What we know:
Blueprint: E1 16-20, E2 23-26, E3 31-34, H1 37-40, H2 49-59, H3 72-85, E4 89-93, H4 96-113, E5 120-124, H5 133-138, H6 142-145, E6 155-158, H7 163-167, E7 175-180, H8 196-207, E8 210-214, H9 228-232, E9 238-241, E10 252-256, H10 277-292, H11 295-313, E11 320-326, E12 329-334, H12 340-347, E13 350-351, E14 353-355, E15 359-362, H13 370-393
Parallel strand pairs: 3-13, 5-6, 5-7, 7-8, 8-9
Antiparallel strand pairs: 1-2, 2-3, 4-10, 9-10, 11-12, 12-15, 14-15
Helix pairs in contact: 2-10, 3-10, 11-13
Amino acid sequence: MGAYLMNNYGNRTLSLVKGDGRYVWDSEGRRYLDALTGIAVCGLGHSHPAVSKTIAEQAATLSHVSNYFRIPQQEALAEKLCSESGMEKVFFSNSGAEANEAAIKLTRLYAREKGISKPTVVVMENCFHGRTMATLSATWGAKVRQGFDPLVEKFVHVPFNDVDAVADLASDESVVAVMVEPVQGEAGINIPAADYLQKLRNVCDNNDWLLVFDEIQTGNGRSGEYFAATLAGVKPDILTTAKGLGNGVPIGACLARGIAADLFGPGSHGSTYGGNPLVCAAANTVFDVIKEEQLALRATQLGEKLNAGFSSGLANCHAVKEVRNMGLLMAIEMNRECSELYGQAIEAGLLINIAGGNRIRLLPALNTTDPEADELLDKLCSLVNNWANTAVNE
């Protein structure tokens, strides 16, 4: 670990120095199939030619101006995202946490419009919305929040995938919004019932609450549609996204419609770097590639292939509890803690993630080829089966 770096991320021994397509290389020249893609960031894989070309050309032209001025690349990206989502206006940030922070601020302004001085936002157990003070307060889990008291007040957690638990709060006049991930990512790919989001929409409509979708991880083609909201047939009032939007360039977006679209005014919120020419140029190209190459559809097809392959290849593995996916949001849930598989996968030339202690989380590139998918299946099935059998024999 670098001697001058704060130890936020623990002991990191692998140094990655190059990426091309779905593969990365370490400082020793060893190649790895990347099934994590920077935590759902590099949906187009690494060093995508069109994105690299755009970044180089824009960097040689104009990287940054402040938001005191019109930025054509920003306006073009806003139009694309709004047209795709059915939203009306966009605020650009540098990250998903900042996009969610903007969404939370919109719920506060909405509360003031309604004359509510201490508003409550309903959030879900096992959710993850970021690490700023407000998004951290919204996030579930003592481990993530430990040491940061006092937290921002007035977030109420209810069980995920339980509409009745949300509806039961209708008598609480301080509630102004419900914030939810269409699929819980950091918790290990928790997928709700097919009608869950629509029922949440109905509850919010009945109580004059805003519905906020955190699509930081589910957006940009990964769920099988450009946005998971479309897949669910539901239109939220606020939608946030980041991660795959820039394919590695730091950009986030908070989209809104209706009353929520007009709550920010001059001076009420801002960002020095948010939506500058460089990041928006890159994100425009990412958007265009996802649409032109129908990569959301590819995510659906590849997700089905991988689910079938893992279900078959691990059918006799007693340690596997469930294989599940929505598009290329995928998890293999084990019946016990499996963190050692992370290191074993690296040894096998494979990058994965362990979420919640007992879930293998997979977030492959949307343009993963069939041979690369087969490599993932072969390597990971072998690893899991060997790991389970070794544990039994011990």
